[in-house]
Amino acid sequence: MGWAIELERTASPKKKPKVSELGFGKYFTDHMFIMNYDGGQGWHHPRIVPYQPISLDPAAKVFHYGQTVFEGLKAYRTAEGGIRLFRPSKNLQRLNLSNDRLSIPEIDEQLFLEALMSLVRVDSDWIPGEPETSLYIRPYVIATEPLLGVSPSQQYLFMIIMSPVGSYYAEGINPVSIHVESHYVRAVEGGVGTAKTAGNYAAGLKAQEGASAKGYTQVLWLDGVHRRYVEEVGSMNVFFKLGDKVVTPALNGSFLAGITRDSAIQLLRHWGIEVEERPIPIDELVEACRSGELKEAFGTGTAAVISPIGELSYKDEKLVIGGGETGPLSKRLYDTLTGIQYGREKDPFGWMVEL
Ligand SMILES: *Cc1c(COP(=O)(O)O)cnc(C)c1O
């Protein structure tokens, strides 16, 4: 406690979009959180203000050197009208890990949590109540010092914006097809792959464009050194069901430690299913697919929760997984995770934080 968050309410609330038109990240709520950092003074002046454009000096460091990090989480409305967040402390911790990697000053976790909860409360009427809809929350930090020298910025803005999002699976859970990228790489160990930072996404667009042109939804990245071991898919971690066990790449310092990934592993182990975290060569998956050992594949991330993978293309080969259908384990994980988030199921791990 002890942080006084100022509140300035909007005089002109916006008209809310129709739920059918929400999509992802297109509309923003009436308010935003903002806080400044200045060298010598630290983080100061936390406030909730009407959602509005910000003005920056053209020399602001974020534009030139990409010193910026972000997070992504959701607020859910339960059938009883309650409001809940999913494991928010994990996002607070991860933002500070990203901050540390990008030489951005740490943000007090208690203040961050208070800011998050206060903002969600102020805009709580923006949390849609329809099935599988939610309020996506985007905290982020940008370096604002107007100085072209390459050194950590002495000024920053920490902001939180929020966007009501529609059901990811409005037409039912449809498996996606994924292109295994064998030319471009996203990150290497020792780089910034473990941080949620803008450059990782800008660096991935080229491959993503190529994959889209060939009709694939996303890219599966291989490791940057050998181009052999599976890392992650777009903004999701990735899992494979081989026979009776589940394998997922071990956290190796070159890709993001997803909170959904961690939650899926905990649930699978809770169900008595063996989960191996280890390096996974792409050749092993190709072989397992040919032999019928590869039963299911799915991605995990806050936006889609569980995204079944029905097809992988690697070099000139197309691998159809589980007949291109959503597998039973992917479905069970999706139903259980979303069940916990929306309060339809027991929360055995105490993941949900009630507002
Ligand atoms: C955000 C993100 C994920 C998924 O993380 P969650 O905490 O599960 O949402 C995975 N990979 C990348 C690159 C990401 O940016």
Molecular structure report:
- With 355 residues, this protein is α+β, with helices and mostly antiparallel strands.
- Helices cover 23% and strands 30% of the residues.
- The chain has 2 domains: 160 residues, D-amino Acid Aminotransferase, Chain A, domain 1; 166 residues, D-amino Acid Aminotransferase, subunit A, domain 2 (D-amino Acid Aminotransferase, Chain A, domain 2, Alpha-Beta Barrel).
- α6 links the parallel β13 and β14.
- It has 8 helices and 18 strands.
- The mean pLDDT is 96.
- Bound molecules: pyridoxal-5'-phosphate (PLP).
- The site of pyridoxal-5'-phosphate has 14 residues, from α6 and β15.
Task: Tell me briefly what this model is.
With 355 residues, the chain is of the alpha+beta class.
Fraction of residues in H or I helices: 10-25%
The figure for the number of domains is 2
Q: What is the residue-averaged pLDDT?
A: 96
Q: Characterize the overall form.
A: globular
Computed over alpha carbons, the radius of gyration is 21 Å
Q: Beta-strand level of the residues, as a percent range?
A: 25-35%
Count of helix runs: 8
Total count of strands: 18
The major pleated sheet works out as: 9 strands, mixed
H/E series = EEEHEEEHHEEEHHEEEEHEHEEEHE
CATH H level, superfamily name of the largest domain? D-amino Acid Aminotransferase, subunit A, domain 2
Could you tell me which ligands this complex binds, including any ions or cofactors?
Answer: pyridoxal-5'-phosphate
What features would you highlight for this structure?
355 residues; alpha+beta; D-amino Acid Aminotransferase, Chain A, domain 1; D-amino Acid Aminotransferase, Chain A, domain 2; 2 domains; nine-stranded mixed beta sheet; binds pyridoxal-5'-phosphate
